[in-house]
Amino acid sequence: MKYWLALFLALQLAASSFAGEAAPLAEDPVVEQRLIAISEEMRCLVCQNESLAGSRADLALDLRREIRGLIKAGKTDAEIMDFMVSRYGDFVRYRPPVKPTTWLLWFGPFLLLLGAGVILVRMVRRSQRGDAPKVLDAAQREKAQSLLKDPELPS
Amino acid sequence: MIPELGHFSLILALFVALALGVLSVAGGQQGRGDWMALARPGAQALWLLTAFSFGCLIYAFYTNDFSVAYVAEHSNSKLPGIYRIAGVWGGHEGSLLLWLMMLSSWMLAVSIFSRQLPDAMVSRVLGILGLVAVGFLLFMLVTSNPFLRLSEIPADGRDLNPLLQDPGLVIHPPMLYMGYVGMAVPFAFAIAALLNGRLDAAWARWSRPWATAAWIFLTLGIALGSWWAYYELGWGGWWFWDPVENASFLPWLVGTALIHSLAVTEKRGLFRNWTIVLAITAFSLSLLGTFLVRSGVLTSVHAFASDPRRGVFILLFLSVVVGGSLTLFALRASKVRSGGAFALVSRETLLLVNNVLLATAAATVLLGTLYPLIVDALNLGKLSVGPPYFNSVFVPIMVPVLLFMVIGSYARWKNDSVAELAKKLRPVAILSVLLGCGATLLAGAWSTLVALALTLVFWIVLGSLLQIYRQFKDTVNWRSTPLSFWGMHVAHIGIAVCVVGITMVKGYETEKDVRMAVGDTVLVGGYTFRLTGIHEAAGPNYNADVGDVELSRDGRVLRTLHLEKRTYFSSTMPMTEAAIDTNLVRDVYVSLGERLEGGANPAWAMRVYHKPFVVWIWGGCLLMALGGTMAALDRRYRRRAAASAGAVAAKGAVA
Amino acid sequence: MKKTLIPLGLFVVLVVFLAIGLTRDPHEIPSPLIGKAAPAFTAPRLHEPGQTFSAKDMLGQVWLLNTWASWCVACRQEHPILVAFAKTRTLPIIGLDYKDQEADGLKWLARLGDPYDLSVTDKDGRIGIDYGVYGVPESFLIDKAGVIRYKQIGPVTEEALRDKILPLVRELQK
């Protein structure tokens, strides 16, 4: 009897050790967090409209593996970005860098907003200058009265 | 035989459109009744010819006529029936025919629902739309004929792209194109107004329901596209700032500005030039989008196979249409001062602020979308502009829009005072901040951005509710409140709902990337997921690995989700069909990745997501569309006979 | 009149850019490695697995590094051109068998011809990453000092060979 009980318990333990909490794909969650953060800032060069973090292309898997290695080797985010840019060019940056060729891109919206504000102010000011309401003369006033009294016109 | 008939029908349509375009516009300009009388029947004839041609292409597709090159390229004998119909618009040529179908449908609608417009106006509008149709028909017949035959008939077709074999294909493109193309109608109204020199409030009242209708379809089309990407692509994203997505978003932003600008022109006769420019810009952006998608100039997952020859044609067409319109505008724009004055603090100013902000947002998105092209054209290298850029610049511009939205709906026309507005809105403001911050703390970790967003959400909702309450209290008979009042509030609340979805998902979604063997569990967002089995299944034109995942919470099993990884016979790329459980407050989303181990105890990579409130994103869009529908159906648009602009404005109606 | 011309003016500028854009290919990403030293590598040879080959072995010669793979469809397009070019013995061509199984690579070369002086294998793709390879086939022209002077993205075509590669090779070999 004890033998069967022991076997039963052993089997239970064995079974639960097979079906347990699923292991995260990554070995080290801290490293994975950094990997996701860094690779979200990069473009997948194969599917060109996905970030490196989400892409399932072969090259993306390889590059993520490389970056994982670099993170474990203690490289900083800037160094890792440099690693990628020196091999693939600025194109790999999902967020365009701020340099003279991209000043228009980064400061443009702000300038547009300023310009829009200026137009706004001028339009409002212009509507307030002059333009006093016209005074109707007697004939016009009579016409206006008759129109207003006209039962045919929708009210 | 049928494809030839379809082709012939298009050629006939070209001549009809040409006649319609030339005679109707000329008739309107010269006041010739006999030519103007051709407008409505002409539009209806064009619709019949286009519909027949469209029917022929559907027939060729459905009956697997692989002698037609387009069918052989995009269809397959094993393709399920519904996709043999929807697949018609899965490729470049067919989608152009859909474009044309939508254009002629809008023309048909204008020809029917325009009894209260003067004939000269209708004639010009239909004529201009006819000329646009000429451009598209020429484009199709010269460069993109869907009815071309193959000399060697293949045994079977190359099949529709597996990503498109989904119910989303049945509804998203038609809905989106309805909106995209619909912007041509307010465009035509604007050009007609420039042509006849009559830029008054009556013109605005006639154009407004059409602009709103196009806007509604565009809203729904974009929402459907976003939702489709979410459940179809397998990694839970719903907006990627992809050039083609931006191409549809730009006319939406400008369209929103347009319907609000039309409000001012309708009520007060102001902002006429601004409204005309917006109407021209909205449709121009639609045409620009068509160019971007089909010319190969930008990289995009949506891009059709590109051909520089097509790109040149569209660019020429774009130049003629938009260049011509803007030249006409420069020549004929209203030089007469509109005469109405308005104070610095007034509804006019606030609507102007709204328009300016929306136009700036659109310009910003356009800048980001075209920047890689600009940099490359100037030989400054290759650059890529991705979501991090768009998110950084778009959000700060939209925040003031949400803020001013409420103030604008409270402000009086012509003149209001800061003190009075503050008095009405102060309690709303205070309550919004309290509730917004409170909700943030309830939802999870504190985040200033989330708090800001939720404060704005409460600001909008409470602002609308208070106005509705005051409408009940202050008006003698609230039942006579125009439908457009209710529409406005429903639409504004819709925006708030959408913002809730976006904020909560971005702020609080969680995901886990795990390796699962049969029997393994993973815990995400308070839910337990257990892989109970993996088996193989076969579909009509694919093989699949199907995973069964049991979803439970607090020990109670809720349901079993079925995930698939399909390999279509026609393609080497495997397709993921994610399993999603949706309810009002969250989605749980599971998708199957690669098989990590085979054999007796297989293990798969799986991604599990918990996305709070994500369905509110599209729910909000539905509310927006509902609000727009209510506004467009307002009785004043259906009234017969043109009252003078003065009589309408004198009513001093509510928004 | 002046202010109403602004929208038209902006539009004209836009059309000019779009027209120029039609002449460009957005998929082509130029290499940042042009003008820089070719990344060093030592890799096992495909035909003699026990032996290795290093990039620095080629110093003093102008040579072409061509990435290929047995699973690559576009490589079949350029292969006959490379085979014909190799017969002219203009310069050494080294093959980089990218992310491939040796057996498959050998079979592929046996079937379609071998234009390479030798091929090395890059099974995990690391060498490819160092060279910024994102889509096979890609080819690099490297000069006597070991500096990359030209990168061909995609298959080597007759035009590219005639108009870009050969003139540069002649110049570099002087």
Task: Kindly describe this structure.
- By secondary structure, chain A is mainly alpha-helical.
- Chain A is built from six helices and one strand.
- In chain A, helix 2 (29-39) crosses helix 3.
- Chain A starts with a helix and ends in a 6-residue tail after the last helix.
- In chain B, the strands form two sheets. Chain B has a five-stranded antiparallel beta sheet.
- Chain B is globular and about 85 Å long.
- By secondary structure, chain B is an alpha+beta fold.
- Helix content of chain B is 63%, strand content 12%.
- The N and C termini of chain B lie far apart (56 Å).
- Chain B contains 20 helices and nine strands.
- Chain B has helices at 2-30, 33-36, 39-62, 69-74, 81-86, 92-112, 119-143, 167-182, 184-196, 201-233, 243-268, 272-295, 308-332, 347-377, 387-410, 418-443, 448-474, 483-508, 615-632, 645-650; strands at 510-517, 521-524, 527-538, 542-553, 556-568, 575-577, 579-583, 586-597, 603-612.
- Chain C has 174 residues and is an alpha/beta fold.
- A five-stranded mixed beta sheet of chain C has the order 5-4-3-6-7. A two-stranded antiparallel ribbon of chain C has the order 1-2.
- The longest helix of chain C is centred in the N-terminal third of the chain and has 16 residues, at 6-21.
- Chain C has one domain (29-173): Glutaredoxin.
- The mean pLDDT of chain C is 89.
- Chains in contact: A-B, A-C, B-C.
- Chains A and B meet through strand 1 and helix 5 of A and helix 14, helix 15, strand 1 and strand 2 of B.
Total discrete domains of chain C: 1
Mind summarizing the main beta sheet of chain C? 5 strands, mixed
Percent strand of chain C? 15-25%
For the CA atoms, what is the radius of gyration of chain B? 27 Å
Looking at this structure, what is the CATH superfamily of chain C? Answer: Glutaredoxin
General shape of chain C: elongated
The strands making up the biggest β-sheet of chain C line up spatially as 5-4-3-6-7
Count of DSSP strands of chain B? 9
The CATH topology of chain C is: Glutaredoxin
How far apart are the termini of chain C?
63 Å
Instruction: Give the oligomeric state of the chains in this entry, treating copies of one chain as homo and distinct chains as hetero.
Output: heterotrimer
Low-confidence parts of chain B: 641-655
> How many domains is the backbone of chain B divided into?
4
**Helical content class of chain C:** 25-40%
Order of helices and strands of chain B: HHHHHHHHHHHHHHHHHHEEEEEEEEEHH
Our count of helices of chain B gives: 20
Please identify, by name, the CATH architecture of chain C: 3-Layer(aba) Sandwich
Q: What series of H and E elements makes up the topology of chain C?
A: HEEEHEHEHEEH
